[in-house]
Specification:
468 residues; alpha/beta; 16 helices
């Protein structure tokens, strides 16, 4: 769900219906810092930070980032250090607190479960982020966009406040290189260790083969799976085999990319289906196939409670009502080289003129690639950073064309764009292919709907669990 789209408000709204509301765990350190610099309207962030069992950490963050009344519109947000193999203490603080705040706020006002969704490919923040969510009592952890075989073991250690490690994927790494990331809760603990509960762990997979591999080779318990097809929003797994593009320039998916649900059932663990299942008929089909329920993304992304900026939300809702909203599966946009589904909307990075006008800068760096530099150290590069910088780090010239700064753009999408002089970072809206289906949730004469409206229409009389 991008950055801040499935935030605490949306997750709370879904959980209040008795379903599993899930927070997007991407860039929560940046969101925390920027919301505080905006003055923390409503005081929600400060209310949650007051409950963090690490008061010294909370106070460090408030003293560094909170601006009473908020910054001026033309003032840039405070720059932050970039994530690295050996994380700066400032980012460890922000990751712990950002995750704690989102889960804490999502759990307010109800007694139902709340989950957190991480991207495995954004590896450097994993350990302190998970610890922050555990401190807040997160019930489920979901993780896709990679092979999270080492996450269960990390969860098991962190839930007991023990030091944890996670292997960083480093291009060109040699067998003897140290590529582990490390986090010891003792480095931030203050006083008595709170008792924590282990959350349910659900990897997000695109094939039964990966699911079977994770069950066999993970270093801890895998409790079930989200099975996500290529019509789902955001990053998609690339097609299997040689990449082919259709006339529009989108990747072509075929039968090899369909998940064998009979083999998923044979694994003997619960699973949910995602990607094009956000309709009542698709939910019934999922249940008939043996799924526990469905994961819903696009429908909730345009609900009232989502963090998507109101102007973008309303513009695409109106297009969906006319049946004219379009989504392009862009094989080049993401610096990760994974296809990315981008909704077409003027004034955003889907507009070639907006893309061409933006000066390349990489100052958030979540999607950077780790590589072994000439000194044998772990360094980072991004195909969307300035071209000369990328090439100087050993990047290939053919990898830079069309690459977009997804990190800055997604933060801008939920209304917190960085300001650079007179330039404001443009947004990018990601969506599933079935964006026009959101029209079903809007009553006649209306151009809005709530998360509860989505749940009521989808579930009806069926027994299922919908995942935001």
């Amino acid at each position: 769900m991008g950055v801040g789209i499935s935030d605490w408000r949306l997750a709370q709204a879904v959980s209040r219906t008795g379903q599993l509301g899930v927070v997007s765990g991407t860039a929560l350190d940046v969101l925390l810092a920027r919301r505080l610099q905006m003055g923390d309207p409503g005081g929600h962030i400060r209310r949650a930070l007051a409950r963090l069992p690490l008061p010294g950490l909370a106070n460090r963050i408030l003293s560094r980032y909170f601006i009473e009344g908020g910054k001026s519109p033309d003032q840039p947000f405070r720059p932050m250090p970039l994530h690295a193999q050996h994380e700066p203490a400032e980012l460890i603080d922000l990751c712990i607190a950002g995750n704690f705040v989102e889960v804490t706020l999502a759990r307010e006002g109800h007694a139902h479960a709340v989950g957190m969704n991480y991207l495995e490919k954004i590896q450097t923040p994993h350990l302190p982020s998970i610890y922050g969510a555990l401190l807040a009592g997160v019930d489920y952890i979901l993780m896709g966009a990679g092979i999270p075989a080492k996450i269960p073991g990390a969860i098991d250690r962190l839930v007991n406040h023990e030091p944890a490690t996670y292997p960083l994927h480093v291009v060109g790494a040699q067998p003897d290189d140290d590529t582990l990331m490390r986090f010891d809760p003792a480095s931030v603990l203050e006083g008595t260790k709170p008792t924590l509960a282990r959350p349910v762990f659900l990897p997000i997979v695109s094939s039964h083969v990966l699911a079977a591999t994770l069950l066999k080779k993970s270093n801890g318990v895998v409790d079930g799976f989200i099975v996500e097809g290529h019509t789902a929003g955001g990053h998609n797994a690339p097609p299997r085999g040689k990449l082919q593009l259709n006339e529009a320039g989108e990747p072509v998916y075929g039968e090899r990319d369909a998940v064998d649900l009979e083999k998923m059932r044979a694994l003997g663990v619960p699973f949910w289906l995602a990607g094009g299942f956000g309709t009542p008929a698709a939910l019934r089909d999922a249940l008939r196939e043996g799924a526990q329920g469905i994961q819903v993304g696009t429908a909730f992304a345009f609900a009232d409670e989502s963090g998507l900026h109101a102007s973008y939300k309303q513009a695409l809702r109106e297009r969906a009502l006319r049946g004219t909203a379009t989504v392009f599966t862009d094989p080049l946009a993401s610096p990760t080289s994974f296809p990315l589904k981008v909704a077409d909307l003027p004034g955003t990075l889907s507009d070639p003129a907006v893309y061409d006008a933006r000066v390349r800068v990489c100052d958030l760096g979540y999607l950077r690639e780790a590589y072994r530099d000439a000194n044998g150290s772990v360094a980072f590069r991004c195909a969307a950073e300035p071209v000369s910088t990328y090439l100087a780090k050993g990047g290939h010239a053919e990898d830079v064309a069309g690459r977009k700064c997804i990190c800055n753009a997604l933060v801008a999408t939920m209304g917190l764009p960085q300001v650079r002089g007179r330039a404001v970072e443009p947004a990018i809206i990601t969506s599933g292919d079935a964006i026009n289906d959101i029209a079903m949730f809007m009553e006649a004469g209306r151009t809005d709907y709530t998360a509860a409206d989505v749940v009521r229409l989808l579930i009806g009389g069926a027994t299922a669990n919908a995942v935001a």
